[in-house]
Every structure is written in C-alpha cells, then in structure tokens.
Amino acid sequence: MSSPVFFRPALEPSLADVVGWTGVIAPEGADLALRFGRVAPLDLAGPGDLTFLDNPRYAPALAGTRAAACIVPARYAGAVPPGTVGLVAKEPYRAVAIVAARLYPDAMRPGSLFGTVGVSPSSTVHPEARLEPGVTVDPGAVIGPRAEIGAGTVVGPHAVIGPDVRIGRNCSVGANATVVHALVGDRVILHSGVRIGQDGFGFAMGPGGHLKVPQIGRVVLQDDVEVGANTAIDRGSNRDTVVGEGTKIDNLVQIGHNVSIGRHCVIVSQTGISGSTVLGDYVVTAGQAGLAGHLTIGTGAQIGAKSGVMNDIPAGERWFGIPAQSAREQFRLHATLKRLAKRVPSAAD
User: Which residues form the UDP-3-O-[3-hydroxymyristoyl] glucosamine N-acyltransferase non-repeat region domain (predicted)?
Assistant: First the structure.
C-alpha cells in the first residue's frame, strides 16, 4: 500500500522568513538563508525541518533533535544542540502555528473533498438560493430556497443548507453537515457531521405526557467560530442560541437552546451546556463538563474536566468536581477527607 502525503508544503521558507513572520530572535551569526521543507516534532525532525519546544515535558528530546532549526523559550536556548539553530520566542507554540499556517494553508480549513471548482452539477441548489461568485459546492450537497452563501465558502459533499440560512464568506461546511434556521458569519468552520439549528429539547412535562414546545428561535454563529465534528447546536426556543466571535468548539459537544456563549471561549469535547445558560467571554470548559440550565458563567472562568456545574460561577474563577465547586473549596474538601481517613481505623486494625 502506498503512503500518500495529504498536506504538501506550499513553499520552502527561510529562517529569515520565520523571523519576519513571527518576530523570533535568531542567534548572532545564524544563517538566515537556511531553508526548510516542513514542520516536524522534536524526535522526528531531520536536517530539512523546523521543530519547536513549548511543553517542558518534552525538554529531554531537545538534545537529540536533528532539526535545521528549533523555536524555543529563552530558558532553553542554551540546550539547543549543535547543528540546530535555536530561535527564541516568548510563545513558541503560537510562533510555530504562524509558520505552519503559511507552510500548509490547505490544512487551515476543509476544502472540496472532490476537487470541485464552483458548483458541482451533481449537487442540488434551489433556483431561489443566492450564491456569490467563488462558492464551491461538492457533489450531493443540497442548498435550499432563499439560502445565501458568501464568496469563498466551501460546502462539502452531502451537506444540507436549509431555507433562508445565511452563511458568510470564506466559510467551510463539512461533509454531511446540516445547517438550518441559522445565521453564520465570515470565516466560520463547521466540520463533518455538525448539526446546527435543529429543535431544542423543549417539552412541557406532565403526568399525562410531555407536550412539545415549538422552537421558533435561530442559531447565530459570529465570525471566526469553529465547530468540531458531530457537535450539535440547537436553535433557540423563543430567543436565539448565540456563539460569539472567535469561539472554538471541539468534537461531540451539545449546546442546548437559548444558550449564549461569549467571544473566544474554548468548549472541549463532550461538554454539554443546558438551555438558557450564559457564558461570558474567554470561558474554558474542559472535556465532559456538564452545565445545568439557566446558569451564568462569568468572563474568564475555567471549568475542569468531568465537572457537574449546578451554580453560577463568578468571573475568573476555576471550578471542578461533582458537584462543581471553586478550586479552593475542592482542595480544602480533599485535604479534610485525607485527614479524616487517617483517623479512621482500617478493617485490618
């Protein structure tokens, strides 16, 4: 079986290019004309590669790297081995992200999976839909009446764009994604299998049965939002479900109706956010966190993995646990339990 290369470098930059793009500091006398062909991890990098060190856990691998150049924090500059140019950066991970984006532009957002240019004849585009020039529609995709899609946007195979949906420019809608009852800004990425705008989970509960409540709101995704594979964002029941600009949502996340998420939040995989909960800007929820409904999570709050959040969280605080409490309270609780455990005799005593 052959081994294909899925992402080929778009150029062969020099170290001078890296300095210009990122502001990294090269050592005196370094050959800035030196070129490299890819970005690789420390242990796999060869003489034609650029690598980086950001996490101290991988510091032992620095001594053995064979890379042409390595972006490192200042404290590791002296540990870069001979034959490798050490480039000092305050934030190496951000610096290498800038370089990799230039080197592999095709990896920045999903493109056509069929090599389509323009609208595939095997897609179904309603005659009342409006597509700006430069929209790409892959085979099998369906675009409904009065939908509007901006230039540079790619709609993947078998994706469905519902009636009256608005999608901005330079977006990507992945294979088999569904977007209905939604307004989508510019540069939004929706990965494969995403579900946007379906019914929120709304029922008037009662002993005689559960009466369905019509969900008449929308989903609003602002500019530069990214939504991971198989994530579901329900439309609002009587107001909009909103995701603020720059927010990044991982795979397999559930966002309920009427939820409002601020700008530049990070929502990690398998998080579930119940209806009408409000997250401020720059909130982080770690994997498998569960948030009850009608809560307010303050700006900059951080929620630990597998946490069960049942109360409002003030701005800037870190909470974790089941039920979730502030980090200070959780650490105090664990310390108390340890002290109590030492006092209780074991069954063997």
Answer: 38-101
